[in-house]
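#help-structures
NK: newbie question, is this the right format to request a structure? protein is L-aspartate oxidase
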Amino acid sequence: MKVINNTIMKNKCDVLVIGSGVAGLFTALNIDPSYTVHVITKNQLSKSNSTLAQGGIVSCVDSKIHYEDTMKAGCYYNNKEAVNLLGRKGYQMIQQLIEYGVMFDRNNSGGLKMTREGGHTQFQVAHCKDETGKEIMRALSDTVSKKNNIKVREKVFALDTIVKDGIVHGVDVLVSGKREVYESKITVLATGGIGDLYESTTNERASTGDGIAIAYRAGANIKDMEFIQFHPTALYHQSKGKKLLISEAVRGEGGVLKNKYGEAFMGKYHKMKDLAPRDIVARSIFYEMQRTKTSFVYLDITHLSKEFIQNRFPMIYRMCLSEQIDITKNWISVAPAAHYIMGGIETDSQGRTTVKNLYACGECARTGAHGANRLASNSLLEGVVFGKQVADDINQALKQLIFNEELVDNEWPLIKKHTNLSDDHKQHLELGALTRIEGRLKQTMNQYVSISRDGKGLIKARYVIDKLKEKLQQESNNNIKYYELINQLTVSELIIESAFRRKKSLGAHYRLDNEINNQS
């Protein structure tokens, strides 16, 4: 690290990874140890959507079955090459996770214990009780800490890429209110999802779509932003914000969705009943809530033994008990919540974006593997498979790359150019004002760009977003919340535009004004 322009600290590395979830850490671990890798995260290392993943990771023991299940869940809108890649590489990547120390649940024969989730025709999901993501992150974090070539730095907020002549040379960041520069030969975006654009989400608070907004400002192609998955079963409570996910594996082990009358209703919506693909289950719950004039439905697993529930779902049991719900005796009140985006930064099979030396992987990337709706437990799988793809390509690319010594270090990041901001602005938004703008944004997305949407609502949403952007362009602030909000508004706009352009319903994108039945 050195000082430039008297005030700006400059960091230098071969590979910069932005994001510390499964995709980011797996990428870092697979970079050749002769290269320096810096991993930066705006949060703590333990705070990521990867850590929250409960259900499991698809084992891909039978790649043909996995291919068909993935394609069907995605309404055959998937990129076939990407789906095939998951199937071919998946089992190998799980073996690598085991080598890193991941303690998957085992059956009596010592093999991986499998469960089944929505959209799966067979038991093919490996798991670590109901905290699979947490266990994988533990193992990856421990392994990263032992690598001399990898440096992890927390509480670093990425503002924008440094782009010269269409090539990314690093990133501008904010650390404790001060600007720093990371110069790198390769930059990898692994920043996760967009759940924090909505009032109710299963995501971590930090899921503000930063990577997608950064890539967009750098000129990268963004694709399929209309496809947002709402997880069918988040624990219902009246407060807004982050919701406890009730894993799909609960239904995979025999849980049944019921309405307020105690009726099991999924049979009238899909032949796979409670294990239909997520988009279908979420909409079916939404219909039942409207029909019965309630804010939630119930998930019943009381027919399973207490011993089984406590052993298979210890975290869910414990967390529900803290909300005065004993799931061995009482039904769980659940409702859909924003969970995952299938679109994002367009990449090829190696994770390369349309901007040179900029890669993306994990949820922020649009590989095409998920199509119009993600199959359960394919997210962790995509993170490791494409993390490895990215690393392998980078290892080859680095052989020909050198640092650009002619970078202009005192230029403002793109984020300020895109918002007409400069340091001499005298007006500053207080944190309370930022919170109110964010609240209006989330309310708008919930009302008009949720499980179902229509043209008129999308036009209204765009109008509100434009007004909120105007408000931010008039004033300034220098804290992370301010820049997060710029990213949230940018990504919301991209989602609304994509949703408006796609006139027909497909997968997770459901247009009330042009319904096409895709529930087969």
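mod (FA): yep, format's fine, and the tokens are attached above. The chain has a mean pLDDT of 90.
NK: thank you!
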